[in-house]
Amino acid sequence: MGTPLIELRGLQKAYRLGDVDVPVLKGIDMEIHEGTLLALMGPSGGGKSTLMNILGFLDVPTGGQYLLDGRDVTTLSANARADLRNERIGFVFQNFNLLARTSALKNVLMPLEYAKRRQSAREERAWAESLLRRVGLGERMDYQPSQMSGGQQQRVAIARALVNRPKILFADEPTGNLDSKTSEEVLRMFQELNEQEGITIVLVTHSAEVGAFAKEAYHIKDGLIVGGTYTEK
Ligand code: ADP
Ligand code: MG
């Protein structure tokens, strides 16, 4: 299968509370291969978001190793992590995290402000518009979050996550605030992006129904991998 896009070896995370270390991730071994749609599943409090934040360079581990494309990225500087995050990674959150009183188009363009390689304003706008059409919001580009449904807001967030052409998309409980019909639409969108654009996706969820949309799954409980299904669909 070649070098995994991501490999974790004995990854640990402990939080310092007062003068005790509270272990949250207790030695995670994991491989994420390019092109997969992987569900990270398990009960609330098990460490899924902590793990995803480390995978996405929003947080750092306190032990073990994180290899990205075979390169050890465990001990990178904060700046180097921020660069990798901007260039390689897209995030989608449960609560959409859109800027209020800001159009869908401007929300999608926003991460480009922090990109190293910029295109002309006209090219960037055309790219953001194409992403909004890609997620079915071609007619809503000027709408603000408060003028859109939850499902539409999450699709803006997905377009925004794609604007820097990431290799990997992390979605933490992306349907947690959506009704079941809208959830299914959003999950189908992830499947399409995975199948048609080849984007590697990690979907964090406590729900088996949501996990069923993935090609494979890791189950995490109390900070440990307790099982998984690794069948390629
Ligand atoms: P999940 O996403 O699976 O629900 P989390 O990763 O959010 O789990 O949390 C795992 C555990 O880590 C929980 O017990 C939580 O209270 C604890 N935890 C998460 N973030 C922090 C933090 N910043 N400081 C201390 N404990 C934390
Ligand atoms: Mg969580």
From TrEMBL:
Domain ABC transporter: start-end pairs: 6-233
Statement: the UniProt record of this protein carries the keyword Signal: no
Family designation: Belongs to the ABC transporter superfamily. Macrolide exporter (TC 3.A.1.122) family.
Protein name (database record): ABC transporter ATP-binding protein
Annotated keywords: ATP-binding, Nucleotide-binding, Transport
Gene Ontology cellular component list: membrane protein complex; plasma membrane
GO molecular function annotation: ATP binding; ATP hydrolysis activity; transmembrane transporter activity
Membrane-crossing segments per the record: none
A Pfam family the protein falls into: ABC_tran
Family annotation (InterPro entries): AAA+_ATPase, ABC_transporter-like_ATP-bd, ABC_transporter-like_CS, ABC_transpr_LolD-like, MacB-like_ATP-bd, P-loop_NTPase
